[in-house]
Amino acid sequence: IKRARFPLNAPTYDPSYFSMPGSYGSLVELVVKQTEAVQAKAGRYENPEEHPFFPDDLPPLPQVLNPAAVSVNVNKKIWDVYFNKLLPLFVSSGDDGNYASTAARDLECLQVLSRRIHYGKLVAEVKFRDEWKHYEPAIRARDKKTLMDLLTAPAVEKAVKKRVAKKARIFGQEVKVGDDSDENKGKYKLDPAVVSRFYGDWVIPLTKDVEVQYLLHRLD
Ligand SMILES: O=C(O)C(=O)C[C@]1(C(=O)O)C=C[C@@H](O)C=C1
């Protein structure tokens, strides 16, 4: 919703527009890399729920979990999906010059998507503990299809999609003081159907990918 306040602002993503010493690529890469470097110093990535987009640029971390589980990081895919699939669906074309704010909102979106999707590791751990008798043979057989079937809960997915659409409707309402007419009904800062579709097409499938990848390493 906050990112949708700005149009596409293409120069934010254009490496040639923001070329500066130290070659960071585009402005958004500069903002994400530099923020991650500062947040790493502050201990952000010692929290196993957090995953950097540019891990190669950060100092190595103390390993608290099974190293194989730590290595599951789908942020490259999240980066690609966010910029190439999601953003074009909900921002208007155009350029209002607010590139720094645009990159800051992109960073927020990327970090929250990454956290939500990598929660898959924790969800998978709970599922494994509840039903290890079913999961163990599939893990030993490297049977991704059976793992995917075991962890999939279609009714939960349906409820998640409904809930995010509802949240987008509630939090994305245009609020006007002294306006009791129905004029603003049905006007949202972000189309709730887009949010729901994005969850169904990308967020839930990526979460499930993380779950399967985590499970494949669970008995390492
Ligand atoms: O809640 C779960 O059981 C999950 O595994 C999470 C999640 C999701 O991404 O929302 C993913 C797979 C399930 O089919 C349902 C929902």
TrEMBL record:
GO CC terms of this entry: cytoplasm
Catalyses: chorismate = prephenate
Name of the protein in question: chorismate mutase
Query: According to the UniProt entry, what is the EC number of this protein?
Result: 5.4.99.5
Cellular localization per UniProt: Cytoplasm
NCBIfam families linked: CM_pl-yst
| Source species of the chain | Gossypium darwinii
- Drop me one GO molecular function for this one: chorismate mutase activity
The Chorismate mutase domain covers 99-211
- What are the record keywords, sorted? Amino-acid biosynthesis, Aromatic amino acid biosynthesis, Cytoplasm, Isomerase, Signal
Top EC class for this record: isomerase
Q: In which pathway does it act?
A: Metabolic intermediate biosynthesis; prephenate biosynthesis; prephenate from chorismate: step 1/1
Q: Which InterPro entries match?
A: Chorismate_II_sf, Chorismate_mutase_AroQ_euk, CM_AroQ_sf_eucaryotic, CM_II_prokaryot
Q: Which Pfam families match?
A: CM_2 (PF01817)
Q: Name one GO biological process term.
A: amino acid biosynthetic process
Asked if the Swiss-Prot or TrEMBL record annotates the protein with the keyword Metal-binding, the reply is no
